[in-house]
Amino acid sequence: MTTWYKNFSSQPHQAFFSNGMIFFILFLSLILGVYTQKISIDSSILDYHAYSMIHIVFIQFFIGFLYVVFPRFLVQAQIKVSTYMKHFYLYFFSSVGFFISLLFANEYLFLFSFTLLLAQILSFKTLYEIYKNSKVTNKYDAKWILICFFAGLISHILFYISFFDVSFSFTLKKLAINSGFYIFLFGIIFAVSQRMIPFFTQVKVPEYKISKSSKIMEIFFFLMLLKVIAMFFENAYFSLISDTLFFVFIVNELIKWKLPIFKVSAIMWVLYLSLFWIPLGFFISILENSFSILNIGFIFEKASLHAFALGYFTTILLGFGTRVVLGHSGRTPYANSFTKFLFLALQGVIILRVFASFTLNSNLNYVFWINISSFFLLLILILWSSSYLKILLKGK
């Protein structure tokens, strides 16, 4: 057991990726249980789905990744095992407590939300100290990761306050979710993407030249801030402008990158594929706001949001996850036939989930299609875990 623990805790991504995947499966199972009426809980979907995915599931994957690469970005010593494992335990037990509270004791949600917030503050403090102590001249990417992370702390504080029964709790919760999703989570993932994907590409294709906007993160942050403000005021005109501007920005950026799609293997093209869900998600949002302005009675539900959450976040998560798990365990980062199948199957599930949103405009059973897409996503996560989670748990 001592040897296993030493191996498991030897690299930060092993503990945090394991945590992230386990709770991804648990919370996805919970929403499937609720929608199939096998499980009954008192909390709103903002608590058991939105909050859990933002502040429990996705963030742990990227904290694990950042705890590995941040010291490398900034030429600093690796984070001590004792430090990141304390954070891991705080995240783990807080996540367990939050999950159990959803099932049996809603009155304790605020307690575990507080300890999750504390864990997030400790993560930010750790990364900020590395940033502050670094003497490297180019801290651009690290700076923007920290800015988005800090926005996440504000979002988390707003959500925590919303657990208390005040007249504006629901409004506060929606603001916390929107800012947490678009500025915090989207921001960190995009900051990592625009740094690592071109870099990985250059490693695989030496003749590839990295070409991106010099102010890419400034533009991103400003446009996401506009989007969150527009969503807060529920103004279709404002939202249409912000979505259109972001659509133009990201399409122009992807064209500028000139990614060599046909010159790389599956371990890379899945990362490229994730990026193309960004403009598609904003295109769906543009249609939604246009239909609203024109008074066309068509329901989009959360189609654009799931294009981002599944198409971009989850696809890149499995792509980065596969690469990091293999590369940092001494294996060659390579997607075998089974992994390629999972990558492609995930794209089918994303299309299925977007389609489920549109079934509200027909006689099709919306809940049935939500459950089908949730079931197949859960199956993909379990199948991926059957190969890669066991590598994480075994440790190097």
Per CATH, the superfamily is Cytochrome c oxidase-like, subunit I domain
Structurally, how many domains make up the residues? 1
Runs with pLDDT <50, length 5+?
A: none
- The first-to-last residue Cα distance is 14 Å
CATH architecture: Up-down Bundle
Instruction: Compute the number of strand runs.
Output: 0
How helix-rich are the residues, as a percent range? over 70%
Mean pLDDT: 95
Q: Brief overview, please?
A:
The chain is mainly α and 396 residues long.
Reconstruct the topology from this structure.
Layout: H1 2-8, H2 12-35, H3 45-73, H4 81-104, H5 109-133, H6 140-162, H7 169-204, H8 216-233, H9 236-257, H10 266-293, H11 303-327, H12 337-358, H13 366-394
Description:
The chain has 396 residues and is an all-alpha fold. It is built from 13 helices and no strands. Helix 3 packs parallel to helix 5 (109-133), helix 3 (45-73) packs across helix 11 and helix 8 runs antiparallel to helix 9 (236-257). The two termini are 14 Å apart.
Q: Keywords, please?
A:
79% helix; Cytochrome C Oxidase, Chain A; mainly alpha; 396 residues; 0% strand; 13 helices; globular
